[in-house]
Amino acid sequence: MARAFKSKVLTANRLIEGDVVYYAADGSWVGKHEDALLIEDEAEGNALLAEANKLANYLVGPYLADAILNDQGKPVPTHFREAFRTRGPSNYRHGKQAEV
């Protein structure tokens, strides 16, 4: 029996800065999980991942991460690791943590 595809976002790290980025609906890479495209089709997710893997001069380690829509219609992570990545570096307050 085939497993059901769970909705996902495409994520990676920028090569130079190391920042976590997410693929957006307009084809850009954004810094906030809530601005990511929620992918609900496995074929589309695999195609986008294949394209992201071609961006080795810009991205490191692209992958699809489970996500769901919150009450505001924004994607939110479903796994602790991904929730942690949305907050940025954890060694001291800078980047995304300084914005909170």
Summarize the structure.
With 100 residues, this protein is an alpha+beta fold. It has one domain (8-93).
Q: What does this entry look like structurally?
A:
- With 100 residues, the chain is an alpha+beta fold.
- The protein has one domain (8-93).
- The protein is built from 3 helices and 5 strands; from the N terminus they run E-E-E-H-E-E-H-H.
- It has a 5-stranded antiparallel sheet.
- The radius of gyration is 14 Å and the shape is globular.
- The termini are far apart.
Name the helix and strand elements from N-terminus to C-terminus, one letter apiece: EEEHEEHH
Helix fraction bin: 10-25%
- For the largest sheet, list the strands in their spatial order: 3-2-1-4-5
Number of H- or I-type helical stretches: 3
Using the alpha-carbon principal axes, give the shape.
globular
Instruction: Tell me the strand percentage band.
Output: 25-35%
Mean pLDDT over the full residue set: 90
The N- and C-terminal alpha carbons lie at a distance of 44 Å
Oligomer: single chain
The profile of the biggest β sheet is: 5 strands, antiparallel
Structural class: alpha+beta
Number of domains: 1
